[in-house]
Amino acid sequence: MEIRQSGIRDVTCGNNVVVYEPANIYGCTLYDEVFVGPFVEIQRHCVIGRGTRIQSHSFLCEYVTVGERCFIGHNVTFANDLFKRGGPDADAANWLRIRIGHDVTVGSGAVILTDFVCDGAVIGAGSVVVKPVTVRGVYAGNPARLLRTL
Question: What pTM value is reported for the model?
Answer without folding.
Answer: 0.95
